[in-house]
Design a protein that fits this description.
Two copies of one chain form a homodimer.
Chain A (H helix, E strand, L loop, with lengths): L3 E5 L2 H13 L3 E5 L5 H15 L14 E4 L2 H4 L5 E4 L5 H14 L5 E4 L6 H5 L8 E6 L8 E5 L5 H13 L3 E5 L8 H17 L5 H16 L3 H10 L3 H9 L18 H15 L4 H22 L2 H14 L17 E7 L13 H18 L4 H5 L2 E12 L8 E12 L2 E10 L2 E14 L10 H14 L17
Parallel strand pairs in A: 1-2, 1-4, 2-3, 4-5, 5-6, 7-8
Antiparallel strand pairs in A: 6-7, 9-11, 10-13, 11-12, 12-13
Chain lengths: 489, 489
C-alpha cells in the first residue's frame, strides 16, 4: 500500500515533516496557500537530503513523491497521516481541522505541530475530536528525533498507530499522559529564554557569551543524558537523594527572577529519587560516568572534525601544543637521513570498540593523519592545498601486527620509499613504545584539485620530498614492504 | 619552570581540576582534610586518564606529579595557581582564603570553584582581595571546557594570566564583566531544574520523560550552538528580529510558573538583534543551517556508535529497516554462486572532508562494516562473538579508483577468495551504481577472544564460509586481486 502523508502548512516545520516522510518512502501531499511554499519546502528538502539519509548505516527506502495541492480536501485524499503546521492561532487551527475532517479518511491520524495548545483546545468543536492529537516536533524536524505526542481525548488505537508511524520515521514519540500549556520541552526553553532576556537586558552577558555558557558546558551534557541522569551522576555513589539534599535548598535562593517555587518536601524528594532509580538504576554511578565520558569524548571529537564549538577549542589547543615542537616542524628543521615522526598521540575513546581495542578503520585514520602531517612537512600544507594542489591516495596496504587500547600513546615513524614527480610512496610504522602495532604502506599521486587529474607538485615540494627519499634510501628495507595479500602464504 | 597548582578541597570538582592540571603537565599539590580524599581524587583521575588525553590529535605533555599535603600552607608552596573547591559556605571560603594568602605567592591566581557566590563576597576581609576571582568549572571538569571567570575587583594583569592558563589547559574562560548571584550558566540550570520539579510534582512527566524531552531535542542543538544562534537559524533569512517578533509575545503566556518577565520593548529587541549580528552575522542563515546539520549528524552518529541516546534510536530504526530485507538475511537465504551484497548505504556528512568527498579512512570503515555484515551472514554474529570467537583482520589492501560525495548511495559486493579453517580472504567492491569507487581486499583469521590467538571457527561458520568460497571459485577473477603496491609500476 502506498503510504501517503498530507502536510497542511509548509514553512520550516511543515517542510521538515514533508522531508521526514518523503525520505522515508512516503508520498507527501502539501497544501499551503503561500505562493512561495514550493520553493520554501524545496529548500528544506535540500537540507534534509544532504543530512538525513546518511544517519543510518543502511540506505533509506526509495524516496516518495511530493505534490502540491490547491485545497485541503485534495491534499488529504488517501492520507494515513495528516500533519497540521498552520500559524499558532486557535481559530485558524479549528477552521483547518474542520476542512481536514470534511474530506479525510476517518482512520487517519491528524497530528498538530502546535507548540502551545493543548489537545483539548484543538479538539473543541471538531466533527471527530478523537482523531486529533498534538505531535509537536523540533527544528530541524528532519534530523531531531523528539516528537511530543499529547493525545488526551484521542482514540487509543489511533495513538498506538501514531507512535508506530513516528518510530518508523526514526523519531521518538514522547507520549505525555497529561496535557499542559506548551507541553514539556518548550516550558524549559521558555524558562531559559526568559532568564536569558534578563541577562542581556541587565548587561550581565551578551548573546554570544550566553551561547558559549550553554554550548561549552551543560549543552554537551544534555545532548546525551538530560537533566536528572546528569545530576544522578553528579551525586555520586550516594545517589539522587544525596544530590537533592545538596542542590535542593538552593531553590530558596532568589537567583533567577522567577519566584514561584515548589515546596521541597520529603514526598517530592522520594518521588524524584524513585523515578530516577527506575530510569537509570540498572547502571551503577561508575558505569554512568564512563558512559557519559564516552559520549562526551565522541561528541567533542566529532565537533573537532567540524572545527566548531567545543571542537574548535580543541583545535586551538592542539595548534598551541604543536608550536615549537617537532610536531609543528617543517622539512628544513628535520634530518632527512632519519625516519620522520609524523604522529604522537593518545588513542581516544571514540576510536575503540566495545572492549576497548582500537577499531580497524581508525588505524587508517591514524595513518592518513600521519600522511597529512608528512605532506605539511614537505610544504603541502593547508595554504598550498587552497592554491589548488594536493596528494590523493591511490593505494593502501595495512598489516595489523598487534592490538592497542584506548589511552595508549602511539607514534608513527614514516619512511619515503619513492618520491619523484607526481609519485609519493610512504611506509608508516605505528608503535606503542618499542612494540610495533601496524604498518601502513601508501601510494599517492599529486593532483590538480580542479581537474582531479595527476600533475606534478610545486618545485619546493618535490625538492623536499626528494631530499627525504634520498636520505631514506640507505636505511634498511623494512619487513613487509611491497607485500601483497596472500603472496607469503 | 615547574608549573605547580594547589588544589584546596578535593571531591568531584577539586579532583576534576587536579586531573586537568596533572594531565597537562602541571605538578599538583592537594589539601583536603577528608581522609578519603586520595581515593576519591584517584577515582576522578582514573576517569580523566581514560578520556582526556585522546581528545587532541597530539599527545599531551608528560603527566605532572600529584602530592597530598597536611596543611593549606604546605599545599600552596610554589604554586602559580590555587584553586579553592571547599563547601559552599561563605565563612568556610573566607577562612580558606585567609590561610591561603598567609602562605602563597602574591603573584599566584586564586580561583574559586563557587557556583553561587560573587567575587565581591569572596573578597570580603581578604588580605589581598585583588588576588581572588571566581573560576567556576563544570562537571566533568576534566572534559568540559567552560569556566566562568568572574573577576570584578581582581587585578587586571592577574586576570589575563588566569585566562592564558585556562586556555592552555584546553578550557574556555568565559570572562563575565559584571558579577551576579550564580553567574550565568547555573541561573539557566536553576530555571530548568525548578520547572522540572513542578512537572514531576504535578505528575505531568517523569524524570525519564523529562530527560528524553531534553536529550532527543534541544539538548543536541545546544551542544553546538546555544540558545540565540539556534533561534537565529530558526528565524530564517528574515533574521533575529523576525524571530523575536514571533516568539517574544509568548512571554506574556503564563506557561511556566515563573512570573517576573522583562518588558518586551523595541529597545530590548534591538539590543538582542544587534548582539546576535555581532555573534553570527558573518555566516548567512543557509550557512548556519548547514553547519548546524553537519554538527548534529556528527554528534548523532557519534552517539550511534556508543548506542546511546539519540544514537540508540538510530540503531533501533536500522534494525527495523534491515528486518525482512537482504540486509538482514543469513547464509541459508542467499545464493552462494553470487557475490554477496554486504552494504547499501548513503555516505553520511561526517564521512566527508571540507569539500564533501568521502575521507580516506571512511573507505576502510565501510569495508570493515561490510566484513562485519558478511561475518553475521555466515553466523559470526553478536551472539557468537559473545561466546568467545571472532575474526580479526590481519591485512588490508585498498585501491581508490574514483571519488564519491556525501549523500551518494553506495553498495558493496563481496567475494570470498579463500575460506578454509581459520582463514578468510575477502574481496569487496564498492560501487555507486555501476561506477566502481574502490576495492578492499582483506585477510582475516578466526581467533579466540580470550587468548587472542588463532583457532578454528565453529563448524557451522566454517561450513557457511566454505559454501560461499566454493560458489565464488568459478566467478571471473577481479582486476586488482592479490596486487602489491608498486608491483605494477
Amino acid at each position: 500500500m502506498t503510504k501517503i502523508a498530507a502536510i497542511i502548512g509548509g514553512g520550516v516545520i511543515g517542510g521538515g515533516w514533508a522531508a521526514r516522510f518523503v525520505l522515508n518512502g512516503w508520498d507527501v501531499q502539501v497544501f499551503d496557500p503561500d505562493p512561495q511554499a514550493e520553493r520554501k519546502i524545496g529548500e528544506v528538502m535540500a537540507n534534509a537530503r544532504r543530512s538525513l539519509p546518511g544517519l543510518t548505516d543502511v540506505a533509506l527506502p526509495a524516496e516518495g513523491k511530493i505534490t502540491y495541492h490547491a485545497s485541503i480536501s485534495e491534499a488529504v485524499q488517501g492520507a494515513q497521516w495528516i500533519q497540521e503546521s498552520v500559524p499558532e492561532r486557535l481559530e485558524i487551527k479549528h477552521a483547518t481541522f474542520a476542512e481536514v475532517q470534511a474530506a479525510c479518511d476517518v482512520a487517519a491520524v491528524i497530528g498538530s505541530s502546535t507548540s502551545g495548545f493543548k489537545p483539548s483546545e484543538l479538539q473543541q468543536g471538531a466533527a471527530r475530536p478523537e482523531q486529533i492529537m498534538v505531535a509537536h516536533p523540533f527544528n530541524p524536524v528532519y534530523l531531531l528525533p523528539l516528537v511530543e505526542l499529547v493525545a488526551v481525548g484521542a482514540d487509543a488505537a489511533l495513538v498506538e498507530q501514531a507512535k508506530a508511524v513516528l518510530s518508523s520515521l526514526g523519531m521518538h514519540p514522547l507520549h505525555l499522559k497529561k496535557e499542559i500549556d506548551a507541553h514539556v520541552a518548550d516550558r524549559f526553553l521558555e524558562a531559559v529564554w526568559r532568564e536569558a532576556l534578563w541577562l542581556v537586558k541587565d548587561g550581565i552577558a551578551t548573546t554570544e557569551e550566553i551561547d558559549d555558557a550553554i554550548r561549552y558546558g551543560f549543552g554537551i551534557r544534555w545532548a546525551q543524558m538530560g537533566l536528572f541522569e546528569t545530576y544522578r551522576v553528579a551525586g555520586g555513589e550516594a545517589g539522587m537523594k544525596h544530590f537533592m539534599a545538596q542542590f535542593g535548598p538552593c531553590l530558596s535562593f532568589p537567583w533567577t527572577k522567577l519566584m514561584d517555587v515548589p515546596e521541597f518536601t520529603e514526598e517530592l524528594v522520594d518521588l524524584i529519587a524513585g523515578q530516577s532509580d527506575a530510569q537509570s538504576g540498572h547502571h551503577s554511578i561508575r558505569e554512568l560516568e564512563r558512559i557519559r565520558d564516552n559520549n562526551l569524548v565522541t561528541m567533542m571529537r566529532g565537533l573537532k572534525a567540524q572545527d566548531w564549538g567545543a571542537g574548535a577549542l580543541l583545535n586551538a589547543q592542539e595548534t598551541a601544543m604543536r608550536a615549537g615542537t617537532v610536531h609543528g616542524a617543517v622539512a628544513a628543521d628535520l634530518d632527512a637521513g632519519k625516519l620522520v615522526e609524523t604522529a604522537h598521540r593518545t588513542v581516544p575513546l571514540d576510536w575503540t570498540d566495545y572492549n576497548g581495542h582500537m577499531t580497524e578503520s581508525r588505524y587508517l585514520q591514524a595513518f592518513a593523519d600521519a600522511t597529512d602531517r608528512f605532506m605539511a612537512i614537505i610544504g603541502c600544507d593547508a595554504e598550498y592545498i587552497k592554491s589548488g594542489g594536493s596528494y590523493f591516495t591511490a593505494e593502501t596496504h595495512i598489516r595489523h601486527l598487534d592490538e592497542v587500547h584506548a589511552g595508549a600513546t602511539i607514534s608513527i615513524r614514516t619512511r619515503v620509499v619513492l618520491g619523484e614527480g607526481k609519485k609519493m610512496h610512504l611506509f608508516h610504522e605505528m608503535m606503542e613504545g618499542e612494540r610495533m602495532l601496524a604498518t601502513g604502506e601508501h601510494f599517492l599521486l599529486h593532483v590538480s584539485l580542479e581537474t582531479r587529474k595527476p600533475k606534478p607538485p610545486a618545485p619546493h615540494i618535490e625538492a623536499a620530498l626528494v631530499r627525504f627519499a634520498e636520505g631514506h634510501a640507505d636505511l634498511p628495507t623494512p619487513e613487509g614492504l611491497g607485500r601483497a595479500i596472500g603472496a607469503a602464504r
